[in-house]
Structure formats: structure tokens, C-alpha cells
Amino acid sequence: MAMTTGRSSTRPTTDLAPAVALFHGLSDPTRLAILERLTEGEARVVDLTGLLGAAQSTVSAHLACLRECGLVTGRPEGRQMFYSLTRPELMDLLASAETLLAATGNKVALCPTYGVRAGATTKTRGSK
Which range marks the domain in which residue 50 is found? Predict the structure, then answer.
């Protein structure tokens, strides 16, 4: 995504609204945890509620949001729905984010606007 030209102008050369919407969708801890789990393969709502410790209605609402954004799809099997990522590129994006976070150390977490002290909640992979 080319954001600026080679000139000193700071004006974006592309419409950033879709990227902003994508990153805003990824900014919710529950949705991000769902996507992270789905990088491992399909999951049902009951699997996700157990992992997240969240109510079924909460998980279902977040899955609906992710489906509407085109990031997740559902495959019905009997009375159950199995959710998965729609695009493998999302796995690349999440892996790149982990690499960037590792490279920046605690700087992002300490950000006064969006860091953990600003009210953002975080969970490390594998924690509950």
C-alpha cells in the first residue's frame, strides 16, 4: 500500500479509509483473539467461548462483525457452524504484526494514546 509519493508531501496518494476500517476492526481484543485462534484452523462458537471466557452472544456478535468485513466465513455442519479465515493473507498480516511488536519491544504497549495504560486490554498468546 503506497501511502505517500517520493516527494516531501505528506498527503496520501491512496484512499486510506479501507485500511483504517481494517485496522479498526482488528483493534478489538476479542476480535483479534478470535482471528488469532482461527489461524490454527476452524473453530465453533463453543470453542471460542471456552478459549475467550466470553458469553456466546458476545462471541457471536464479534463473529458477525468479522463475517460482515469479509475476514471470516462460516461452514454449516448439521446444527453447528465452523468458522475459518477467508483469506490466508490475514495470517501473514498477524504474523507481521507479531514481528513488528517484537522489534519495537514495549514501545507500542507504552504508547500514551493506545498503549495498555491508555485503557487497552491485552493478552499474550496462550494466556487466559
Answer: 24-86
| 119 within some domain | no
Kindly report, residue by residue over 74-112, the tens digit of the pLDDT: 999 999 999 999 998 999 999 998 898 889 877 887 888
Kindly give, in sequence order, each residue whose CB lies less than 8 Å from that of residue 6, ignoring residues fewer than 6 positions away. none
The 10s digit of each residue's pLDDT in 29-51 is 999 999 999 999 999 999 999 99
Residue 59: other Cβ atoms inside 10 A: 25
Looking from the CA of 109 toward its CB, the CA atoms found within 13 Å total: 12
Model pTM score = 0.75
Is 30 within the bounds of a domain?
yes
